[in-house]
Amino acid sequence: MRFGFFTLCVLALATTYGHAAQSPNPVLMMTSPDSANANYEDKCSNGGNLDKVNRDKFLKLMFADKKSKLSQLKVALLNEIKQSGDEPRGEGVHIGEWNQTFHDRSGCGTSTNSYSAFVVTVTGGNANHTVVKYLVTIDDDDNAGKRTLKIRDIRPINLRNDN
User: Fold this and answer.
1) Which residues pair with 114 in a beta bridge?
2) How far apart are CA 111 and CA 46, in angstroms?
3) Residue 160 burial (10 A CB sphere; 0-12, 13-18, 19+)
4) How far apart are CA 154 and CA 116, in angstroms?
């Protein structure tokens, strides 16, 4: 009984550590204010290289870079709020949840994807004013282990203009 339990523990550890060694989270390198690359060891990941961790890191790095379109959009929207005489609520500008809006996979190593989210302004105190202002789309592609992230488009949206 002890031998069986010991064998199971060793197999579980070996499997866990073996898997972690095969697919480490690579370093994301910004190639411009609005694009980045990461190189993965797995050249045939069936979409496994498209991790949320590096996508979130990419977005944070763009917000931190004053030359990034996303950072410039946030500054412009905050200025718009200030000029209107309103007070921003919280940060004033929020990015909604990212949803996959395009996916095409060719074989095990090539995957082309887009993710989109609304950019929203929130102002006021108890009576707040929340308005969707833009739709942001990023591309997140994997070509045989080379992952490329970039801004595809930022489009204004005017869903309702009745102040």
Assistant:
1) 102, 139
2) 8
3) exposed
4) 9
Q: In the structure, what pLDDT confidence band is assigned to residue 49 with cuts at 50, 70 and 90? A: low
Rounded CA separation 93/63 (Å): 12
- The single residue listed with the structure tokens 């990015």 is 95
Choose from 6-15, 21-30, 129-138, 140-149 the range with maximum mean pLDDT: 129-138
Which residues sit opposite 122 in a β-bridge?
Answer: 130
CA atoms of 95 and 72, how far apart (whole Å): 14
> What's the 3-state SS for the chain?
CHHHHHHHHHHHHHHHHHHHHHCCCCCCEEEECCEEEEECCCCCCCCCCCCHHHHHHHHHHHHHCCCCHHHHHHHHHHHHHHHHCCCEEEEEEEECCCEEEEEEEECCCEEEEEEEEEEEEEECCCCCEEEEEEEEEEEEEEECCEEEEEEEEEEECCCCCCC
